[in-house]
Amino acid sequence: MSPIIDIDHLSKRYDSGTFALKDVSLQMQEGEILALLGPNGAGKTTLISIICGLVTPTEGTVRVGGHDIRTDWRAARKLIGLVPQEITLEPFEKVIDCVRFTRGLYGEAPDDAYIEKLLRSLALWEKRDARTRELSGGMKRRVLIAKALSHRPKVLFLDEPTAGVDVALRREMWEVVRELRAEGVTIILTTHYLEEAEDMADRIGVINRGQLLLVQPKAELMGEFGKKRLMIDLYEPLANLPPELAERGLTLSADGRQLGYDYDTRAERTGIARLLGDLTAHGIAVRDVATKQSSLEDIFMSLVAEPKKETA
């Protein structure tokens, strides 16, 4: 099956010589959710802007639904919905008129039944006659989502969609996203809430300094990069770790009642059995043992961490 999004060796370089994007290639299938993660200035918004036809690339090609975004831009753009970071709405426009107008911009015939269904799904129906300037920041962001969905796009870009949105509204938004995926809509989202990416995405992409460092299925990424931490509760607190145990990578909590040990789940031997045996040999009584899986945040930080400079 042909990909709904096909990005091939895409680059964006400014006159200063700075690369906003450098040799990015990516394919996405219908109904897939990709979480694109990266620090501020990594190139996330530039990539989205190029696909949406808002920024011209220096090199490479992008096809959406088989349509080149530069040579067949009208057909490509009609397949795309974009929810930008910035809240840009006409302040005196009614919510329902705002969404209707956006639908008309794409050449779609009026469909009040669909507009009502869309506004209800975003809890906006009761606000349909309100001026957008009267809405809270979270409700304004919902209006942006409604505008992006007004023409039933096949691809939806969510650029920090839950910024400034409270927890309850955020959960409702993600229910809408799940429904869209079930209908076959392909979604690329950028977010600083890594727990959202971990919960929602099928694949995770990490971008930094304009380069796409990796794109992997979420479960595969967690398995490959994720480490576990063994937490060992002690019956009696320790003042200090015996030197030979400290060399094993053990850490001691501030109150002396818990030991920590990081290990790789992919290793043939984790060293846990030997470690517990060494504790017994040193007369350290273990009260309880638990493990904790590395989070997506841990993995993300390890990928984008600045390399340490060597000191002379």
Automatic annotation (TrEMBL):
Source organism (scientific name): Paracoccus laeviglucosivorans
This protein's UniProt keywords: ATP-binding, Nucleotide-binding, Transport
InterPro entries: AAA+_ATPase (IPR003593), ABC_transporter-like_ATP-bd (IPR003439), ABC_transporter-like_CS (IPR017871), ABC_transporter_ATP-binding (IPR050763), P-loop_NTPase (IPR027417)
MF GO annotations: ATP binding; ATP hydrolysis activity
Coiled coil: none
Protein name: ABC-2 type transport system ATP-binding protein
Residue ranges of domain ABC transporter in the record: 5-234
